[in-house]
Amino acid sequence: GAVVSQHPSRVICKSGTSVKIECRSLDFQATTMFWYRQFPKQSLMLMATSNEGSKATYEQGVEKDKFLINHASLTLSTLTVTSAHPEDSSFYICSAPGGVDTNTGELFFGEGSRLTVL
Amino acid sequence: EDQVTQSPEALRLQEGESSSLNCSYTVSGLRGLFWYRQDPGKGPEFLFTLYSAGEEKEKERLKATLTKKESFLHITAPKPEDSATYLCVIADSWGKFQFGAGTQVVVTP
Asked: What's the average model confidence in pLDDT over A74-80?
């Protein structure tokens, strides 16, 4: 089955620094990837849609200058949290639709990245 | 506007006590309904895709069914390892995904 790999799984950083999270589709090409944020005991909240070769589409209320998204290839999207602050601490997850059989349509999720900002 | 409502929010079961989770939805053209399992600190794991009313899918102790308005995830004789949050997601004809809030299931020995 299709696999989406996310890295790093955990990251701790100091306030004011930037952190990059990578999301890779390992056995299929993903023209679209989604980035989510999840707080404890809550469901996933869509932050933005990453489109290969074009600008990301951000959901309302998500600061595009703080959460930089780059989708430079058909297998890699990155989320950079710039000038991170403690309130940015959260669980970030990426996903990509489709897979080996793109007609199936389901989303495949990365393993998630736990960001802790001190 | 597409909407997905899952119930109950939380479910506590004794090992072996079968139960069902509900996912009610409204959508302008359903392309697919998906069930996922999410363990704490991990990304959601794909379980099933359902495309049309009347369809059923099974995997071990789990069985998913679909009608025009809702889907059920039946857990038969659950074991503690079935403890997780179960997410229902729909995709509409435009390719947009909508998430339910999830049902947290705890199965005690």
From this structure: 94
State pLDDT tens for residues B4-21.
999 999 999 999 999 999
- Taking only the tens of pLDDT, chain B with its 109 residues reads 888 999 999 999 999 999 999 999 999 888 899 999 999 989 999 999 999 999 999 999 999 999 999 999 999 999 999 999 999 999 888 778 899 999 999 999 9
Find the chain B residues whose C-beta atoms sit closer than 8 A to any C-beta of A. 31-32, 34, 36, 41-46, 49, 87, 89, 91, 95, 97, 99-102, 104
Q: What is the DSSP letter of A59?
A: P
Option in A1, A97, A114 nearest B41 (CB): A114
Alpha-carbon span A28 to A97, nearest angstrom: 10
Whole-Å CA distances, B83 to A44, A68, B24, B39, B79: 19, 35, 22, 8, 8
CA angle B51, B90, A49 (to 5 degrees): 125
Return the half-sphere exposure (C-beta side, CA atoms, 13 A cut-off) of residue B59.
Answer: 11
Contact between A111 and A42 under an 8 Å Cβ cutoff? The reply is no
Judge whether residue A51 has pLDDT over 80: yes
Chain A residues with beta carbon closer than 8 angstroms to that of B45? 109
Which of B34, B42, B99 has its CB closest to that of A44?
Answer: B99
CA distance A17 to chain B (A): 23
- Is the distance from CB of A63 to CB of A50 less than 8 angstroms? no
